[in-house]
Amino acid sequence: MTIRVLHVASELYPLLKTGGLADVTAALPAALIEQGADARLLLPGFAPVAAGLEDLRPVARLARTFGAPEATLELGRLPGSELAVYMIRADAFYARPGNPYLDAEHVPYGDNAQRFALLGWSAAQLAQHLDPDWAPAIVQAHDWHAGLAPAYLRAAARERGANVAPGGVRSIFTIHNLAYQGIFPAQQFDSLGLPRDFFDMHGVEFYGQLSFLKAGLYFADKITTVSPTYAREIQTVAQGGGLEALLRGRAHDLVGILNGVDYAVWNPSSDAAIATRFSATRQSGKMHCKAALQTRLKLAQKHDAPVFGVVSRLTEQKGLDLLLAALPEIVTRGGQLVVLGTGDASLEQGYARAAHQHPESVAVELGFDETLAHEIVAGADVMMVPSRFEPCGLTQLYALAYGALPLVHRVGGLADTVVDASLENLADGLATGFVFERFEPDALTAAIRRAFALYGRSRDWRDTRSRAMQQDFGWAASAQRYMTLYRELAGQNTVA
Ligand code: ADP
Ligand code: GLC
Which amino acids does the record list as binding ADP-alpha-D-glucose (predicted)? Predict the structure, then answer.
């Protein structure tokens, strides 16, 4: 029997992306379809989504609008793919210029609770046959934006006096990042239309406030996160963000499934964005990509200077304050640093200042630029991902594919995907990058020195780079794990 699954999220590459979530919501449903699932997506109708979907047609009026003058459900298709995408058209909520979550001053919109409640509620409606032609057996809600979907499903079950939502629909909540908790003042709870007793420690209440993330974690039938190591880390006080007790209590329902790479988008042998294509067996094009990157960013044209790259949101999570402190280590040893990022003003200023001080060896582009991101990963020798915490991380996986050895902190998905170039790992033919243990300047500096040392041994460098490029982090294996989970959940339907 074909399993119908609805993915509920706020971003979708290439229409709307602020981070890795968009890459996942584009690639995972497609990978599931290849495994035989019938997967669709539900998104808020943010301006680029409404403009980018093809063949949009109305499906139903939404009876509840959470304060928007009107809201309708539409169904369209992602251009160039068969992926069916439902979209909530509520222009008063979603047709705002710029960032989907923040206003022009980088402050969360005052009505975010209502904007994203509409997303979760609409998912639960779809599960109850709002579209007469298609209804999911599984609703998979991604991050806090979709966190209320499992709560509305539970409320619908309760109305029928059952444990399981109408039609036996099951829910999964997927944590991409536990640091974003969707927290709102308690007073906003009344506007959500959930049963009163859901505002409880055993429910959506979180230290006196309302948390959409907690709603997802508490009410979903299963919880997944995006790497096995992160699944363990979030059960500890240090990394649980106050939710570790809940997560430990649900440990038997929690599983870490690694993200994958969409090799149709991130593949150096077919990438239209890069100067020259290359592959594990024909690596010479990478030198051209490096030279093109140096030219584009006005760095000294030195083919023998190792280029360290960063493509990242500039936030506390990413550990780029630590890298800024270690920057002299790269420059004085004759390396170059290329940074593409946007985010915290202090980090933007710090990196802009470094570029100003070292114009020949440090280049910084502040902004979000998909093409330049590909050019950097293609041209860099090393990609830096020194994150404080990292649920999965996609940048290091793209780096492996493009032979830019990842240099990472041993945490979350970074620990699960990169093997350090220690002597023993080199000797055993296992090394794919550089890994440091402690989140401290001297540990990062030592890893940078290790990168320089290996770079000086060109044979070892080439071998390691080839190995990195041959790693397979495609979506198929992960999609199979999700399929197993879906089957397990669907098999429980009979208790309804
Ligand atoms: P996160 O989701 O925490 O930001 P990931 O490593 O999972 O981290 O995914 C980041 C994604 O966003 C990658 O596809 C990366 O290329 C992209 N990205 C991040 N910053 C930028 C930027 N400034 N310009 C272009 N792409 C970016
Ligand atoms: C989050 C995490 C990142 C992960 C991405 C996609 O943004 O920070 O580690 O790769 O989601 O799951």
Answer: 17
Q: Provide the residue type at 111 as one letter.
A: D
CATH of segment(s) 284-471: 3.40.50.2000
- Tell me the longest C-alpha to C-alpha distance in the chain: 71
Check residue 163 and give its pLDDT.
72
Contact (CB, 8 A) for 177 and 24: no
Q: Rounded to an integer, what distance in angstroms lies between the CA atom of residue 261 and that of residue 93?
A: 32
Tokens 């979603």 found at: 94
Q: Whose CA is nearest to atom 14 of ligand 1?
A: 20
Q: Cite the annotated binding site for ADP-alpha-D-glucose by residue number.
A: 17
- pLDDT per residue over 32-60, tens digit each? 999 999 999 999 999 999 999 999 999 99
The DSSP result for 336-350, as a single string, is: EEEEEEEE-HHHHHH
Question: Do 102 and 109 touch, CB atoms closer than 8 A?
Answer: yes
Which residue is it, tokens 């990042």? 177
Test site for ligand 2: of 145, 226, 312, most ligand atoms within 8 A of the Cβ: 226
* Numbered ranges of CATH 3.40.50.2000 in the chain: 4-260+476-490, 284-471
Answer positive or negative: Cα dihedral of 101, 105, 106, 110.
negative
State the sign of the Cα–Cα–Cα–Cα dihedral 473, 469, 83, 70.
positive
Task: Output the CA 236–ligand 2 centroid distance in Å.
Answer: 19
359 preceded by a cis bond (ω within 30 of 0): no
At 471, give phi and psi (nearest 5°): -65, 140
CATH superfamily for domain 4-260+476-490: Glycogen Phosphorylase B; (3.40.50.2000)
The answer to pTM > 0.70 is yes
